[in-house]
Amino acid sequence: MTDRLPSPRGADVGRRIGVGLMYGLWKPRVLGAWRVPTTGPVILAVNHSHMIDGPMVMGVAPRPTHFLIKKEAFLGPLDPFLTGIGQVKVDRDTTDRTAITRALGVLENGGVLGIFPEGTRGEGDFASLRAGLAYFAVRSGAPIVPVAVLGSSDKRGRLIKELPPLRSRVDVVFGEPFEAGDGSGRRTRTALDEATGRIQKQLATHLENARRFTGR
């Protein structure tokens, strides 16, 4: 399986592409990036309300990031492109064991895994979390860094409603890393449910603080 794991070099290329696009089209303001551990496995848990959330974090994060991305995005030429820049295709309608193996492989190799714990684009308020984030965090022991991507709520000037207005400011706020598990090493359904509750509380608190700090 090793040769099929997402490419760290590809993720680094994706980061460079992302930063060029994001700073070319919007005005990112990155806060707290120093909180991301410089080495070792890390999970970035990102809220999801805009189409650009993934590319934005990929571009401005201090380390190359492998995102879990729904298979529907891997269409036509985007399939080899996203795979080439180290992103992980996941089927959200089933237990995608290939995606799970590849995501865990990223963490086992000391890499950074990006996850939208809400599962799909919505209000971006972390109100509903899937259990996948807790599973990866408890299974790998990797710390979670909450990330809030906050764009303008103004609907004017948008070419596409799912995107912030071009050249508008987008704040990306990295929070303090935290452990999802309770230290027992348990991986039971009850343990994962408890971990999901702890994670949701931490992410919601970070988002509230980020909104207060940025005025978003």
UniProtKB/TrEMBL annotation:
Keyword S-adenosyl-L-methionine: no
UniProt GO molecular function: 1-acylglycerol-3-phosphate O-acyltransferase activity
Domain Phospholipid/glycerol acyltransferase residue range list: 42-152
Superkingdom in the source lineage: Bacteria
Key word Cell membrane present: no
GO CC annotations on file: plasma membrane
Pfam families noted in UniProt: Acyltransferase
GO biological process, one term: phosphatidic acid biosynthetic process
InterPro entries: Plipid/glycerol_acylTrfase
Keyword set, alphabetical order: Acyltransferase, Transferase
Name recorded for this polypeptide: 1-acyl-sn-glycerol-3-phosphate acyltransferase
